[in-house]
Specification:
120 residues; mainly alpha; 3 helices
């Protein structure tokens, strides 16, 4: 009978890998905590611990997603601020060029007026 129980408990490598992947870390942490705290009902303690673990994992995922969104928004705002600064600089440069051209035109008109006065 002992052999029968052992053979039923044997797992394939695939099953073992699956368990390690999905519950290895949390179950190890839960069992460690049970061993240290020795609760009156270890089964209930593990069940509640695993539920809390899952909730915490979901919160961490949500926080990570929020941080990614925040970083993307921050990058977008920085790019928009850079473009705004570039546009403002271009607008300032164009205004200066226009002011210079206006001054040149006014100077040329003044010189033309002087020439007209001198010739008349």
């Amino acid at each position: 009978q002992h052999y029968f129980i052992q053979s039923n408990l044997r797992m394939s490598v695939v099953e073992s890998d699956y368990l390690k992947k999905w519950i290895g870390v949390p179950i190890t942490e839960a069992l460690t905590e049970v061993a240290l705290k020795r609760p009156a009902d270890p089964i209930e303690y593990i069940a509640l611990w695993l539920l809390r673990y899952k909730e915490n994992q979901l919160k961490k995922s949500e926080e990570a997603a929020n941080e990614e969104r925040l970083a993307a928004e921050k990058k977008k705002l920085e790019e928009e601020a850079k473009k705004k600064a570039e546009l403002e600089e271009e607008q300032r440069r164009i205004s200066e060029e226009n002011a210079k051209k206006q001054a040149e035109i006014e100077k040329a008109l003044a010189e033309q007026a002087k020439l007209n006065e001198a010739t008349s």
